[in-house]
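Weekly structure sync, notes
Attendees: PL (lead), two postdocs, one rotation student
Agenda item 3: pending single-chain targets
PL asked that the sequence for the first pending target be pasted directly into the notes so everyone works from the same version. It is reproduced below exactly as submitted, 299 residues in total.
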Amino acid sequence: MQPTLLILAAGMASRYGSMKQIQGFGPTGETIMDYSIYDAIRAGFGKVVFIIRKDFAEDFKAIFEPKLKGKIKTEYVFQEMNSFLGALEVPAERTKPWGTAHAVLCAKDTAKEPFAVINADDFYGRDAFAKAADFLNNQCNEKQYAIIGYELAKTLSEHGTVSRGVCEVDEKQNLVSINERTKIYRDNNDIMYEDETGKHTVPFNSSVSMNFWCFHPSLFPATQELFLGFVKENSSNIKAEFFIPIIAEDFIKNRGGYISVIPTSSKWFGVTYKEDAPTVKASVDKLVADKEYPASLWA
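Predicted structure, written out during the meeting:
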């Protein structure tokens, strides 16, 4: 059974204004998502599930269906505010989506095989998808999940500070915790982060999460249970979000599970700041020039 790729794209409309304005970075207008899907296909993934908002489904399908037809199975899942709430109601003032773990939960009826989860607008690289496919095909089970770990130094922006989840691992390279570090930046030969207690250094080779997870479908019942508890606890906090690390922490601490941190040689890049866009385009151009990708991805 081939693994499935879940792409978290429900937040894209708010960031881009509309689906039609998704930024093209490749020589023939390829988006970052196109490169992820291409890498997933060559790593052996059998299906891609787009988690989107219902109100831009038509625009989305018009962009992706023509180029993916015959290359990989596609399915669409809608992350709506009332999805999986059961008898609970959406707090009246809430407009913000419930977060990434809720988006994954929305794919409960679609992802019946081991699956990976990625962000729509992050470039992860060929090696990352190959490593994820190998894990999902050969090691993933009810007690063993994984996260692809990126070298911190390969995920910084030249145009400002970034926030990263720094992975703490045990001697078997299993995840212990993810420590959110905000205001991370390069300072001469060091990488620093700042918090309320001051400035601190972070090792260059620290492994960080860029939200590339590998899960077994047995995750869904526990996630649904956690989500309902989260909604009850946060009914008055209209900005609280149910993030994937909440599921991961529960899996490790309460369900006897392990999450491997799998290192990748890939360089991550994404558009944290609008000034990052030319750097992303230059990175893609170089990969095409180096024959890592064809000039026209879907030709």
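Discussion points:
- The chain has a mean pLDDT of 92.
- The radius of gyration is 19 Å.
Action: rotation student to compare against the earlier draft before next sync.
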